[in-house]
From TrEMBL:
UniProt-listed InterPro entries: A-galactase_NEW3, Choice_anch_Q_dom, Ig-like_fold
Signal peptide residues on this chain, from the entry's feature table: none
NCBIfam families: choice_anch_Q
Name the record gives this protein: Alpha-galactosidase NEW3 domain-containing protein
Domain called Alpha-galactosidase NEW3: residue spans: 112-182
Entries under Pfam families matching the protein: NPCBM_assoc
Length: 308
């Protein structure tokens, strides 16, 4: 008995087709000419995956694994599964340099000349993550003659990292009132891309000045009159209430001075009334001095009046 299996027959005499064979189908091989015959099945060939595996046949004509699919192929060659090409490697990330962020913040209220102000200096590295750490240099700028000290003159930062330093600035004691610019700059070996500057303001307050206007209600009085004296106190041109003003009166006849202390009212006036004598010794020119004191500031004024 003859059993046929694993065969494809095409264009045979009388179209004979043994049982168990594939008949009447183009095998779709790579080359069907006798001179250049190539039995490699083309895509869609009916010989692919058509017969059960034979234990004794584990490889094809080219010693490749058989089967390579769900079943063995008919013929000498076993079509092997396509091997996907290895994915192209991801390109290495690029380092992109960027200008750093630099900021200076600090007190804005005017202070007395010679006061030390402390400012906060913040620096951020804005380079992309692929860049290496960078060493940034820090430098400060203050007016000529002033003192400026940075807590750090260089800092190394990874991309995206920030750091904080302090800048202490002291003006000269002779600095006039006004606003002065102070600044901080940064740079690195990268060059212009890593150059940045930031500024803030140091304000010097006006020197407090206390002034007085001392006057008598009249230039000349008669003996036995009441003399009215007033002193108006201002600080930087503004009337000040609650200031202690000491009056000192010197008589023309000499003797012990008359001293009294009066507090200024809401309009800045310290008012004092004094009655002169009626005797002959009361006649003459009187000198009055007033001293106003506000904290450590003092102002002195004087005036005269006559009694006849």
């Amino acid at each position: 008995a003859v059993t046929w299996a694993g065969n494809l027959l095409w264009k045979v005499k009388n179209n004979t087709c043994p049982t168990g064979s594939i008949c009447g189908q183009d095998p779709k091989l790579a080359n069907m000419t006798l001179a250049a015959f190539d039995a490699t099945p083309l895509t869609g060939s009916p010989v692919i995956d058509k017969v059960a595996q034979l234990v004794e046949v584990a490889t094809d004509f080219l010693v490749r694994p058989r089967p390579a699919g769900v079943k063995s192929d008919i013929g000498a060659y076993e079509i092997q599964p396509a091997i996907a090409p290895a994915p192209a490697p991801e390109p290495a990330p690029l380092c992109t340099r960027a200008a750093p962020t630099l900021a200076v913040t600090g007190p804005t209220t005017p202070v007395a000349a010679g006061t030390a102000n402390t400012y906060s200096v913040t620096l951020k590295n804005n380079d992309s993550a692929a860049c290496a750490n960078t060493a940034f240099a820090l430098a400060r700028t203050v007016p000529t003659g002033w003192t400026g000290t940075l807590s750090a003159t260089s800092v190394t930062l990874a991309p995206g990292a920030s750091s904080t330093a302090t800048l202490s600035v002291t003006s000269t004691t002779t600095a006039i009132a006004g606003s002065y610019g102070i600044g901080v700059g940064t740079s690195s070996v990268i060059g212009a891309t890593h150059t940045a500057n930031a500024a803030s303001t140091y304000a010097v307050e006006a020197i407090a000045a206390v002034a007085q206007v001392l006057s008598a209600s009249q230039a000349v009085y008669t003996r036995g009159s009441t003399i009215s004296l007033s002193s108006r106190v201002t600080k930087n041109g503004v009337a000040i209430a609650g200031v202690q003003v000491q009056f000192t009166l010197l008589k023309p006849s000499g003797g012990k001075p008359v001293v009294t202390t009066v507090t200024t009212d809401s309009a800045g006036y310290a008012k004092w009334s004094w009655a002169s004598g009626s005797g002959p010794n009361a006649v003459g020119t009187y000198e009055v001095t007033s001293v106003a004191t506000i904290d450590t500031l003092k102002s002195t004024a004087s005036t005269t009046f006559a009694v006849k």
